[in-house]
Each structure stands twice: as C-alpha cells, then as structure tokens.
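A.,

Following up on our hallway conversation. Structure tokens first:
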C-alpha cells in the first residue's frame, strides 16, 4: 500500500511511523510512506496557504488553490490514483469498519487541515471525509496518524500474527475480552482458573462471555450489531444491571475503552 500525507507540518509523521509496528511494516515493504509539504504548491515569497474568510469572522482559512494543485500533482505521481481522505467535524465517524474498508485501497492520500479549516471547495477533492469524534484538534495530522495506524495494522503481515487484528475490540462488534499475564495471583487478585486450565474450548467460551460482559458494561450501544444469541443477550442484560448497580452517581465508570 502507498500512504501519503499533505500537510503544512510534514515532519510530524515520521517519528511515529518509523517506530515499532509501523516502522517494521515499512521495512518489510507492507506499505510505503511519503509526507508532502503543502507550501511547496504556493507561488508567493511567503509561501502563504491561508487567508481571511469572506464575510468576516475569526481565524484564517486554508486557501483552495494550493490544495487543488497539490492533490492533482501528487495524484499524477503513480499509476493508481489515490483514495483521498479529508478530516472535518462534518465527516463520517471513523470506526473499525472504515479502517477495514480503507485497508483494501492501493493508495491513500490524507489531506490535513489547519487553522480555522479549509475553503469549502477543497472538499470536492475528497473520496472520504472523516471525523474521529465530537471534539476539535488544532490540525489534521493527529487524525491522519490515527487512521494510518488503524489501517496498517490490518494489512497482511503488519502484526506478524495474521489473527491478531481479527481478535481485538470491534473486530466482531464487541470489545475485546479481559486479558491477564503472570503472575497468576497479584495483590489478592487471581486470574480466572479457566485461563490456567489448558482447555482451549473452555478458554474460547470464557473469552466470548467476557467480551459480551465488558461490552455490556462499557459500550452497550455496540450490542445491537454483535449478533448475540438469546442466551448471550441474557448475559448482557445481567452485566448491564450489575454495572449500573456498581457505578451509581459517584462512580460512573470509564468514559472510553482503552487497550
């Protein structure tokens, strides 16, 4: 896969994408990466990429001309045209399904906005407009890195273990099951006995139940699309009731699931 970014801060990408899993995936040729500086497509001595908005208002908008010229020029540099991705609060909420879809593209170009945003006409270049959530960042570089990471880890060979990406949160509509490592007993908290049993059938069944319980407690909105059986729905409803009893007004639980 060819991955490219267009930004006024092209240097922010390599420190992350050259490290760890992303760096190894590049070294193995699973994807190639290029970062382009939007200012290279300006034509004034100050390399200006922004201007005041028509009609007044706060902040500066990114001008359309450099973006159009850059995207068209970059697109012509390889045989296959890139799938162009912009970021905006108006965009579709990014999720694992979008990552899976993008992982099948041959070439991705991420256009990163800054300042007060972009001239609306620039969005006509986009094949996808995405949003990470209902909050505002100073630019599109961090969203681009998030999407690149989520996409690359789905590419064959990127994680080393082909099943790894298919065995995590959201891959089957549920959060991932609880996981433990050594020691088996720490600070009075013991790992569930079934995980020490060596019985893979029982372990898999426990993991399924654990995933349902965790999803019901922390992200019940995901359950409708998870294809649960009636027995599993009963487990989910019980977990939701227990979670509500435990949280109460002074203990609302985590705002988001992290891995």
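Then the amino acids I'd put at each of the 259 positions:
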């Amino acid at each position: 896969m060819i991955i490219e970014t267009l930004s006024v801060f092209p240097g922010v990408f390599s420190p992350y994408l050259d490290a760890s899993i992303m760096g190894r995936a590049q070294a193995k040729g699973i994807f190639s990466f290029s970062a382009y500086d939007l200012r290279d497509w300006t034509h004034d001595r100050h390399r200006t990429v922004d201007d005041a908005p028509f009609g007044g208002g706060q902040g500066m908008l990114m001008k359309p001309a450099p973006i159009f010229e850059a995207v068209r020029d970059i697109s012509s540099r390889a045989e296959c045209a890139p799938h162009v991705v912009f970021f905006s609060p108006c965009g579709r909420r990014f999720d694992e399904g979008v990552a899976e879809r993008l992982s099948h593209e041959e070439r991705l170009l991420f256009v990163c906005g800054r300042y007060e945003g972009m001239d609306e006409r620039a969005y006509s270049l986009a094949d996808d407009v995405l949003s990470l959530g209902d909050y505002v960042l100073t630019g599109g570089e961090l969203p681009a890195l998030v999407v690149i990471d989520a996409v690359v880890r789905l590419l064959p060979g990127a994680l080393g273990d082909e099943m790894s990406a298919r065995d995590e949160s959201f891959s089957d509509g549920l959060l991932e099951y609880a996981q433990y490592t050594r020691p088996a007993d720490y600070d009075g908290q013991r790992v569930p006995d079934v995980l020490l049993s060596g019985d893979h059938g029982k372990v898999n069944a426990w993991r399924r139940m654990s995933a349902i319980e965790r999803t019901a407690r922390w992200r019940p909105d995901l359950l409708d699309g998870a294809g649960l059986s009636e027995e599993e729905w009963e487990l989910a409803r019980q977990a939701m009731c227990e979670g509500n009893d435990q949280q109460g007004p002074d203990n609302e639980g985590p705002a988001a699931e992290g891995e």
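The first strand starts at residue 2 and ends at 7. Curious whether your intuition agrees with the design.

B.
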